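Q: Predict the bound structure with glutamic acid.
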Amino acid sequence: MGAAEAVTDALRELHRRFAGLRDGQLADYIPPLALADPGAFGLALISMDGHRYSTGDADALFTLQSVSKPFVYALALSVLGLDEVGRWVNAEPSGEAFNAISLEPVTGRPDNAMVNAGAIVTTALIPDTPDAPRFGRILDCLSRFAGRRLDVDEQVYASEALTGDRNRALAYLIRSAGPLPVDPVAAVETYFRQCAVRVTTLDLAAMAATLAHGGVNPLTGDAVVPEPVAAQVLAVMATCGMYDTSGDWLLRVGLPAKSGVSGGLIAAGPARFGLAAYSPLLDPTGTSVRGRAALGALSERLGLHLMHNPALAGSTVTLVATADEPSAAPAVSRGSAGRERVAAVAAQGALDFTAAERVLYALDEARPRETGAVVLDLRRVTAVDTVARAMLRSGLGRLAEDGVRTAVADPADRLALLPGTAEQGGHPAVRPFPSREEAAAWCVSGPAG
Ligand code: GLU
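A: Predicted complex:
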Protein backbone atom coordinates (compact mmCIF):
# COMPACT_ATOMS: atom_id res chain seq x y z
CA MET A 1 0.00 0.00 0.00
CA GLY A 2 1.75 3.14 -1.18
CA ALA A 3 0.79 6.67 -2.08
CA ALA A 4 -0.05 5.60 -5.63
CA GLU A 5 -2.81 3.43 -4.16
CA ALA A 6 -4.79 6.68 -4.37
CA VAL A 7 -5.00 6.12 -8.14
CA THR A 8 -6.51 2.66 -7.63
CA ASP A 9 -8.87 4.25 -5.12
CA ALA A 10 -10.13 6.61 -7.82
CA LEU A 11 -10.87 3.57 -10.02
CA ARG A 12 -12.49 1.71 -7.10
CA GLU A 13 -14.69 4.67 -6.38
CA LEU A 14 -15.91 4.77 -9.99
CA HIS A 15 -16.43 1.01 -9.93
CA ARG A 16 -18.61 1.32 -6.82
CA ARG A 17 -20.50 4.19 -8.32
CA PHE A 18 -21.41 2.49 -11.60
CA ALA A 19 -21.47 -1.25 -10.76
CA GLY A 20 -25.13 -0.86 -9.86
CA LEU A 21 -26.08 0.28 -13.38
CA ARG A 22 -28.19 -2.51 -14.86
CA ASP A 23 -29.26 -0.77 -18.07
CA GLY A 24 -28.38 -2.12 -21.46
CA GLN A 25 -28.38 -5.41 -23.34
CA LEU A 26 -25.83 -8.10 -24.13
CA ALA A 27 -24.95 -8.28 -27.82
CA ASP A 28 -26.51 -11.42 -29.24
CA TYR A 29 -26.05 -11.21 -32.99
CA ILE A 30 -22.82 -13.14 -32.39
CA PRO A 31 -24.42 -15.82 -30.13
CA PRO A 32 -21.52 -16.51 -27.69
CA LEU A 33 -21.45 -12.81 -26.75
CA ALA A 34 -24.87 -13.28 -25.17
CA LEU A 35 -23.30 -15.75 -22.70
CA ALA A 36 -21.16 -13.03 -21.07
CA ASP A 37 -21.68 -12.31 -17.37
CA PRO A 38 -23.83 -9.17 -17.35
CA GLY A 39 -22.36 -8.19 -13.97
CA ALA A 40 -18.74 -8.25 -15.15
CA PHE A 41 -17.09 -4.87 -14.77
CA GLY A 42 -13.37 -4.07 -14.96
CA LEU A 43 -11.50 -0.80 -15.05
CA ALA A 44 -7.81 -0.21 -15.76
CA LEU A 45 -5.42 2.67 -16.21
CA ILE A 46 -1.80 2.54 -17.37
CA SER A 47 0.47 5.56 -17.14
CA MET A 48 3.17 6.66 -19.55
CA ASP A 49 5.71 5.22 -17.08
CA GLY A 50 4.02 1.85 -17.37
CA HIS A 51 2.41 1.98 -13.92
CA ARG A 52 -0.64 -0.30 -13.89
CA TYR A 53 -3.79 0.33 -11.90
CA SER A 54 -6.96 -1.72 -12.04
CA THR A 55 -10.06 -2.80 -10.22
CA GLY A 56 -12.98 -5.20 -10.59
CA ASP A 57 -12.85 -7.83 -13.32
CA ALA A 58 -9.79 -6.36 -15.00
CA ASP A 59 -8.34 -9.84 -15.66
CA ALA A 60 -11.49 -11.33 -17.20
CA LEU A 61 -11.08 -12.38 -20.83
CA PHE A 62 -13.38 -11.15 -23.61
CA THR A 63 -13.01 -10.57 -27.35
CA LEU A 64 -11.75 -7.35 -28.88
CA GLN A 65 -14.47 -6.93 -31.52
CA SER A 66 -14.44 -3.34 -32.78
CA VAL A 67 -11.67 -2.32 -30.41
CA SER A 68 -9.37 -4.17 -32.84
CA LYS A 69 -10.12 -1.59 -35.54
CA PRO A 70 -7.84 1.30 -34.50
CA PHE A 71 -4.91 -1.10 -34.00
CA VAL A 72 -5.25 -2.77 -37.38
CA TYR A 73 -5.64 0.71 -38.88
CA ALA A 74 -2.36 1.61 -37.14
CA LEU A 75 -0.72 -1.42 -38.73
CA ALA A 76 -2.04 -0.46 -42.18
CA LEU A 77 -0.80 3.12 -41.73
CA SER A 78 2.63 1.87 -40.63
CA VAL A 79 2.96 -0.37 -43.65
CA LEU A 80 1.38 1.80 -46.35
CA GLY A 81 1.34 5.38 -45.04
CA LEU A 82 -1.59 7.75 -44.63
CA ASP A 83 -1.91 8.76 -48.28
CA GLU A 84 -2.16 5.22 -49.61
CA VAL A 85 -4.52 4.04 -46.86
CA GLY A 86 -6.56 7.24 -47.34
CA ARG A 87 -7.13 6.39 -50.99
CA TRP A 88 -9.15 3.37 -49.91
CA VAL A 89 -10.56 4.38 -46.51
CA ASN A 90 -11.69 7.91 -45.76
CA ALA A 91 -11.47 9.60 -42.35
CA GLU A 92 -14.86 11.27 -42.09
CA PRO A 93 -17.25 10.59 -39.21
CA SER A 94 -20.23 8.76 -40.68
CA GLY A 95 -22.69 9.54 -37.90
CA GLU A 96 -24.06 6.08 -38.62
CA ALA A 97 -24.16 2.74 -36.83
CA PHE A 98 -21.08 0.52 -36.89
CA ASN A 99 -22.55 -1.89 -39.42
CA ALA A 100 -24.06 0.75 -41.74
CA ILE A 101 -23.39 0.79 -45.46
CA SER A 102 -21.13 3.84 -45.06
CA LEU A 103 -19.71 4.00 -48.55
CA GLU A 104 -18.94 7.14 -50.51
CA PRO A 105 -21.20 7.47 -53.55
CA VAL A 106 -19.40 6.69 -56.84
CA THR A 107 -16.05 5.53 -55.36
CA GLY A 108 -17.44 3.10 -52.78
CA ARG A 109 -14.77 4.25 -50.32
CA PRO A 110 -15.85 3.61 -46.70
CA ASP A 111 -16.24 6.68 -44.49
CA ASN A 112 -13.67 5.68 -41.91
CA ALA A 113 -11.76 2.74 -40.48
CA MET A 114 -13.82 2.61 -37.27
CA VAL A 115 -17.04 1.42 -38.95
CA ASN A 116 -17.21 -2.15 -40.21
CA ALA A 117 -16.98 -1.29 -43.91
CA GLY A 118 -13.78 0.70 -43.37
CA ALA A 119 -12.36 -1.88 -40.98
CA ILE A 120 -12.85 -4.68 -43.51
CA VAL A 121 -11.02 -2.65 -46.17
CA THR A 122 -8.27 -1.82 -43.66
CA THR A 123 -7.81 -5.51 -42.89
CA ALA A 124 -7.73 -6.27 -46.62
CA LEU A 125 -4.92 -3.72 -47.07
CA ILE A 126 -2.59 -5.56 -44.66
CA PRO A 127 -0.10 -7.44 -46.88
CA ASP A 128 -0.60 -11.19 -47.09
CA THR A 129 2.55 -13.08 -48.06
CA PRO A 130 3.51 -16.76 -47.64
CA ASP A 131 6.19 -15.98 -45.06
CA ALA A 132 4.03 -13.41 -43.25
CA PRO A 133 0.33 -14.17 -43.62
CA ARG A 134 -2.10 -11.31 -43.02
CA PHE A 135 -3.59 -12.62 -39.80
CA GLY A 136 -0.16 -13.45 -38.39
CA ARG A 137 0.89 -9.85 -38.91
CA ILE A 138 -2.29 -8.60 -37.27
CA LEU A 139 -2.01 -10.89 -34.24
CA ASP A 140 1.66 -9.93 -33.80
CA CYS A 141 0.79 -6.27 -33.92
CA LEU A 142 -2.15 -6.56 -31.50
CA SER A 143 0.08 -8.58 -29.13
CA ARG A 144 2.82 -5.95 -29.21
CA PHE A 145 0.25 -3.26 -28.41
CA ALA A 146 -0.90 -5.34 -25.43
CA GLY A 147 2.64 -6.28 -24.38
CA ARG A 148 1.92 -10.01 -24.25
CA ARG A 149 1.07 -12.82 -26.67
CA LEU A 150 -2.68 -12.76 -27.41
CA ASP A 151 -4.77 -15.58 -28.84
CA VAL A 152 -8.09 -16.14 -30.57
CA ASP A 153 -11.35 -17.24 -29.00
CA GLU A 154 -12.07 -19.89 -31.62
CA GLN A 155 -15.67 -20.30 -30.52
CA VAL A 156 -16.47 -16.62 -31.00
CA TYR A 157 -14.62 -16.63 -34.32
CA ALA A 158 -16.51 -19.67 -35.60
CA SER A 159 -19.79 -18.17 -34.51
CA GLU A 160 -19.22 -14.84 -36.25
CA ALA A 161 -17.97 -16.64 -39.34
CA LEU A 162 -21.30 -18.48 -39.36
CA THR A 163 -23.55 -15.49 -38.68
CA GLY A 164 -21.59 -12.60 -40.21
CA ASP A 165 -23.55 -12.32 -43.43
CA ARG A 166 -24.06 -8.60 -43.07
CA ASN A 167 -20.30 -8.01 -42.96
CA ARG A 168 -19.83 -10.36 -45.91
CA ALA A 169 -22.51 -8.45 -47.78
CA LEU A 170 -20.67 -5.22 -46.99
CA ALA A 171 -17.47 -6.71 -48.38
CA TYR A 172 -19.24 -7.74 -51.60
CA LEU A 173 -20.73 -4.26 -51.94
CA ILE A 174 -17.31 -2.66 -51.51
CA ARG A 175 -15.80 -5.00 -54.07
CA SER A 176 -18.58 -4.28 -56.54
CA ALA A 177 -18.27 -0.51 -56.07
CA GLY A 178 -14.62 0.25 -56.19
CA PRO A 179 -11.24 -0.34 -57.78
CA LEU A 180 -9.72 -1.66 -54.52
CA PRO A 181 -6.46 -3.53 -55.35
CA VAL A 182 -7.16 -6.18 -52.70
CA ASP A 183 -10.12 -8.45 -52.09
CA PRO A 184 -12.33 -7.41 -49.14
CA VAL A 185 -14.42 -10.56 -49.50
CA ALA A 186 -11.39 -12.76 -48.91
CA ALA A 187 -10.31 -10.52 -46.02
CA VAL A 188 -13.59 -10.66 -44.15
CA GLU A 189 -12.67 -13.98 -42.49
CA THR A 190 -9.46 -12.34 -41.23
CA TYR A 191 -11.54 -9.44 -39.96
CA PHE A 192 -13.71 -11.91 -37.99
CA ARG A 193 -10.55 -13.45 -36.51
CA GLN A 194 -9.14 -10.10 -35.40
CA CYS A 195 -12.50 -9.32 -33.73
CA ALA A 196 -12.24 -12.65 -31.84
CA VAL A 197 -8.79 -11.95 -30.33
CA ARG A 198 -9.00 -12.38 -26.56
CA VAL A 199 -7.94 -9.63 -24.15
CA THR A 200 -8.42 -8.41 -20.60
CA THR A 201 -9.24 -4.88 -19.46
CA LEU A 202 -5.58 -4.48 -18.47
CA ASP A 203 -4.53 -5.53 -21.99
CA LEU A 204 -6.83 -2.88 -23.42
CA ALA A 205 -5.38 -0.23 -21.12
CA ALA A 206 -1.88 -1.18 -22.33
CA MET A 207 -3.02 -0.94 -25.94
CA ALA A 208 -4.56 2.48 -25.35
CA ALA A 209 -1.50 3.59 -23.37
CA THR A 210 0.73 2.61 -26.32
CA LEU A 211 -1.24 4.93 -28.60
CA ALA A 212 -1.16 7.67 -25.95
CA HIS A 213 2.60 7.13 -25.61
CA GLY A 214 3.43 7.85 -29.24
CA GLY A 215 3.29 4.22 -30.35
CA VAL A 216 5.78 2.95 -27.76
CA ASN A 217 4.37 0.37 -25.35
CA PRO A 218 5.08 1.86 -21.89
CA LEU A 219 5.25 -1.63 -20.34
CA THR A 220 7.72 -3.23 -22.74
CA GLY A 221 9.43 -0.22 -24.37
CA ASP A 222 8.55 -1.76 -27.75
CA ALA A 223 8.11 0.85 -30.51
CA VAL A 224 5.02 -0.78 -32.00
CA VAL A 225 4.13 1.94 -34.52
CA PRO A 226 5.82 5.26 -35.39
CA GLU A 227 4.73 8.33 -33.45
CA PRO A 228 2.95 10.02 -36.39
CA VAL A 229 0.87 6.86 -36.89
CA ALA A 230 -0.19 6.85 -33.23
CA ALA A 231 -1.28 10.48 -33.60
CA GLN A 232 -3.22 9.69 -36.80
CA VAL A 233 -5.03 6.80 -35.17
CA LEU A 234 -5.93 8.89 -32.11
CA ALA A 235 -7.33 11.58 -34.42
CA VAL A 236 -9.63 9.11 -36.15
CA MET A 237 -10.64 7.59 -32.80
CA ALA A 238 -11.50 11.09 -31.57
CA THR A 239 -13.83 11.80 -34.49
CA CYS A 240 -15.16 8.32 -35.31
CA GLY A 241 -14.39 5.92 -32.46
CA MET A 242 -17.71 5.90 -30.62
CA TYR A 243 -20.05 4.79 -33.39
CA ASP A 244 -22.86 7.28 -33.96
CA THR A 245 -22.26 9.06 -30.65
CA SER A 246 -18.68 10.12 -31.48
CA GLY A 247 -19.49 13.84 -31.55
CA ASP A 248 -21.30 13.75 -28.24
CA TRP A 249 -18.45 11.73 -26.66
CA LEU A 250 -15.83 14.20 -27.87
CA LEU A 251 -17.97 17.05 -26.58
CA ARG A 252 -18.57 15.59 -23.12
CA VAL A 253 -15.58 13.33 -22.46
CA GLY A 254 -13.05 14.81 -24.87
CA LEU A 255 -10.83 11.75 -25.40
CA PRO A 256 -10.02 9.55 -28.41
CA ALA A 257 -11.87 6.31 -27.72
CA LYS A 258 -13.09 3.08 -29.25
CA SER A 259 -15.84 0.80 -28.11
CA GLY A 260 -16.71 -2.74 -29.15
CA VAL A 261 -19.83 -4.90 -28.94
CA SER A 262 -18.35 -7.35 -26.44
CA GLY A 263 -18.30 -4.50 -23.90
CA GLY A 264 -14.68 -3.35 -24.18
CA LEU A 265 -13.98 0.36 -24.28
CA ILE A 266 -10.66 2.19 -24.52
CA ALA A 267 -9.81 5.86 -24.19
CA ALA A 268 -6.43 7.52 -24.54
CA GLY A 269 -5.24 10.66 -22.80
CA PRO A 270 -2.38 11.59 -25.16
CA ALA A 271 0.92 11.69 -23.25
CA ARG A 272 -1.00 10.88 -20.05
CA PHE A 273 -2.84 7.59 -19.70
CA GLY A 274 -4.34 4.61 -21.42
CA LEU A 275 -7.76 3.85 -19.97
CA ALA A 276 -9.99 0.84 -20.43
CA ALA A 277 -13.28 -0.54 -19.23
CA TYR A 278 -15.07 -3.82 -19.72
CA SER A 279 -18.70 -4.41 -19.03
CA PRO A 280 -20.84 -6.25 -21.57
CA LEU A 281 -24.23 -4.56 -21.12
CA LEU A 282 -24.49 -2.25 -24.14
CA ASP A 283 -26.47 0.87 -24.86
CA PRO A 284 -28.48 1.03 -28.12
CA THR A 285 -25.41 2.29 -30.06
CA GLY A 286 -23.31 -0.72 -28.99
CA THR A 287 -21.17 0.89 -26.28
CA SER A 288 -20.75 -0.51 -22.77
CA VAL A 289 -23.14 1.35 -20.45
CA ARG A 290 -20.91 1.16 -17.37
CA GLY A 291 -17.79 1.71 -19.44
CA ARG A 292 -19.15 4.88 -20.95
CA ALA A 293 -20.26 6.18 -17.56
CA ALA A 294 -17.00 5.29 -15.79
CA LEU A 295 -14.55 6.60 -18.40
CA GLY A 296 -16.64 9.74 -18.82
CA ALA A 297 -16.52 10.37 -15.07
CA LEU A 298 -12.80 9.56 -14.93
CA SER A 299 -12.00 12.03 -17.68
CA GLU A 300 -13.94 14.71 -15.84
CA ARG A 301 -12.36 13.90 -12.51
CA LEU A 302 -8.80 13.87 -13.85
CA GLY A 303 -9.37 16.86 -16.14
CA LEU A 304 -8.49 14.84 -19.26
CA HIS A 305 -10.76 16.58 -21.81
CA LEU A 306 -8.48 17.39 -24.73
CA MET A 307 -9.87 20.87 -25.23
CA HIS A 308 -9.62 21.61 -21.56
CA ASN A 309 -6.76 24.07 -20.97
CA PRO A 310 -4.00 21.56 -21.59
CA ALA A 311 -0.69 22.50 -19.97
CA LEU A 312 -0.83 25.83 -18.25
CA ALA A 313 2.16 24.80 -16.20
CA GLY A 314 3.60 27.95 -14.70
CA SER A 315 6.79 26.16 -13.76
CA THR A 316 8.68 26.11 -17.05
CA VAL A 317 10.44 29.34 -16.16
CA THR A 318 11.66 29.05 -12.60
CA LEU A 319 13.80 32.14 -12.20
CA VAL A 320 13.93 35.57 -13.74
CA ALA A 321 16.52 37.82 -12.14
CA THR A 322 19.01 40.54 -12.86
CA ALA A 323 22.25 41.56 -11.16
CA ASP A 324 20.24 44.23 -9.41
CA GLU A 325 18.68 41.46 -7.40
CA PRO A 326 21.75 39.79 -5.96
CA SER A 327 19.84 37.32 -3.82
CA ALA A 328 18.09 35.91 -6.87
CA ALA A 329 21.10 35.95 -9.15
CA PRO A 330 24.19 35.75 -6.96
CA ALA A 331 26.37 34.11 -9.55
CA VAL A 332 25.48 36.70 -12.10
CA SER A 333 26.48 39.69 -10.02
CA ARG A 334 29.85 38.26 -9.09
CA GLY A 335 32.69 40.08 -10.79
CA SER A 336 30.43 42.47 -12.61
CA ALA A 337 31.75 45.45 -10.67
CA GLY A 338 28.15 46.56 -10.56
CA ARG A 339 28.39 48.13 -13.99
CA GLU A 340 27.30 45.48 -16.45
CA ARG A 341 23.70 44.40 -16.10
CA VAL A 342 23.09 40.74 -16.55
CA ALA A 343 19.70 39.06 -16.60
CA ALA A 344 19.23 35.40 -15.76
CA VAL A 345 16.35 33.17 -16.77
CA ALA A 346 16.19 29.57 -15.64
CA ALA A 347 13.88 26.89 -17.00
CA GLN A 348 13.11 23.34 -15.97
CA GLY A 349 11.41 20.22 -17.22
CA ALA A 350 10.69 19.24 -20.82
CA LEU A 351 10.56 22.13 -23.26
CA ASP A 352 8.15 22.05 -26.17
CA PHE A 353 6.80 24.86 -28.34
CA THR A 354 4.65 26.28 -25.54
CA ALA A 355 7.47 26.18 -23.01
CA ALA A 356 9.97 27.69 -25.47
CA GLU A 357 7.61 30.60 -26.05
CA ARG A 358 7.47 31.18 -22.29
CA VAL A 359 11.25 31.07 -21.99
CA LEU A 360 11.78 33.51 -24.86
CA TYR A 361 9.16 35.87 -23.48
CA ALA A 362 10.82 35.74 -20.06
CA LEU A 363 14.19 36.55 -21.66
CA ASP A 364 12.67 39.61 -23.30
CA GLU A 365 11.10 40.73 -20.04
CA ALA A 366 14.29 40.18 -18.09
CA ARG A 367 16.75 41.58 -20.57
CA PRO A 368 18.21 44.95 -19.62
CA ARG A 369 16.77 47.85 -21.59
CA GLU A 370 20.16 49.15 -22.70
CA THR A 371 22.55 46.70 -24.30
CA GLY A 372 23.42 44.17 -21.64
CA ALA A 373 23.73 40.45 -21.17
CA VAL A 374 21.48 37.47 -20.54
CA VAL A 375 22.11 34.02 -19.21
CA LEU A 376 19.65 31.25 -19.97
CA ASP A 377 20.05 28.49 -17.42
CA LEU A 378 18.96 25.12 -18.80
CA ARG A 379 20.64 22.93 -16.19
CA ARG A 380 17.32 21.65 -14.86
CA VAL A 381 15.82 21.07 -18.27
CA THR A 382 15.23 17.39 -18.93
CA ALA A 383 14.38 17.49 -22.64
CA VAL A 384 14.08 19.93 -25.52
CA ASP A 385 12.08 18.82 -28.53
CA THR A 386 13.15 19.79 -32.04
CA VAL A 387 10.64 22.62 -32.35
CA ALA A 388 11.65 24.13 -29.02
CA ARG A 389 15.34 23.73 -29.85
CA ALA A 390 14.97 25.57 -33.14
CA MET A 391 12.93 28.34 -31.51
CA LEU A 392 15.36 28.82 -28.63
CA ARG A 393 18.38 28.84 -30.96
CA SER A 394 16.75 31.37 -33.22
CA GLY A 395 15.46 33.55 -30.34
CA LEU A 396 18.86 33.59 -28.63
CA GLY A 397 20.47 34.38 -31.99
CA ARG A 398 18.25 37.42 -32.34
CA LEU A 399 19.30 38.68 -28.91
CA ALA A 400 22.95 38.28 -29.91
CA GLU A 401 22.30 40.17 -33.15
CA ASP A 402 20.73 42.96 -31.11
CA GLY A 403 24.07 43.31 -29.34
CA VAL A 404 23.09 41.44 -26.18
CA ARG A 405 25.82 39.16 -24.84
CA THR A 406 24.00 35.87 -24.72
CA ALA A 407 25.15 32.81 -22.84
CA VAL A 408 23.50 29.51 -21.99
CA ALA A 409 24.25 27.28 -19.04
CA ASP A 410 23.67 24.03 -20.89
CA PRO A 411 25.95 21.26 -19.63
CA ALA A 412 24.04 18.59 -21.57
CA ASP A 413 24.23 20.71 -24.75
CA ARG A 414 20.48 20.39 -25.23
CA LEU A 415 20.52 23.30 -27.67
CA ALA A 416 23.31 21.63 -29.66
CA LEU A 417 25.42 24.80 -29.57
CA LEU A 418 28.81 23.15 -29.07
CA PRO A 419 31.15 23.21 -32.06
CA GLY A 420 30.55 20.28 -34.34
CA THR A 421 26.90 20.00 -33.33
CA ALA A 422 25.71 23.23 -34.93
CA GLU A 423 22.34 22.94 -36.62
CA GLN A 424 20.78 25.31 -39.04
CA GLY A 425 19.45 28.40 -37.27
CA GLY A 426 22.07 28.54 -34.52
CA HIS A 427 24.11 31.65 -33.91
CA PRO A 428 27.87 31.68 -33.38
CA ALA A 429 27.61 34.54 -30.88
CA VAL A 430 25.46 32.48 -28.51
CA ARG A 431 27.83 30.71 -26.15
CA PRO A 432 27.17 27.50 -24.21
CA PHE A 433 28.77 26.90 -20.79
CA PRO A 434 28.69 24.02 -18.35
CA SER A 435 27.58 26.19 -15.41
CA ARG A 436 25.67 29.38 -14.76
CA GLU A 437 28.71 30.89 -13.02
CA GLU A 438 30.87 30.44 -16.11
CA ALA A 439 28.11 31.76 -18.36
CA ALA A 440 27.66 34.85 -16.20
CA ALA A 441 31.41 35.39 -15.91
CA TRP A 442 31.71 35.34 -19.69
CA CYS A 443 28.84 37.82 -19.98
CA VAL A 444 30.61 40.38 -17.81
CA SER A 445 34.12 39.76 -19.06
CA GLY A 446 34.14 42.51 -21.61
CA PRO A 447 33.87 42.52 -25.39
CA ALA A 448 33.37 39.22 -27.14
CA GLY A 449 36.64 37.44 -27.75
N1 GLU B 1 -17.28 -8.29 -35.02
C1 GLU B 1 -18.25 -7.24 -34.88
C2 GLU B 1 -18.92 -6.93 -36.20
O1 GLU B 1 -18.26 -6.71 -37.15
C3 GLU B 1 -17.61 -6.03 -34.30
C4 GLU B 1 -18.56 -4.89 -34.19
C5 GLU B 1 -18.31 -3.99 -33.04
O2 GLU B 1 -17.69 -4.35 -32.06
O3 GLU B 1 -18.81 -2.86 -33.15
O4 GLU B 1 -20.10 -6.93 -36.30
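A: The chain has two domains: 5-302, 317-445.
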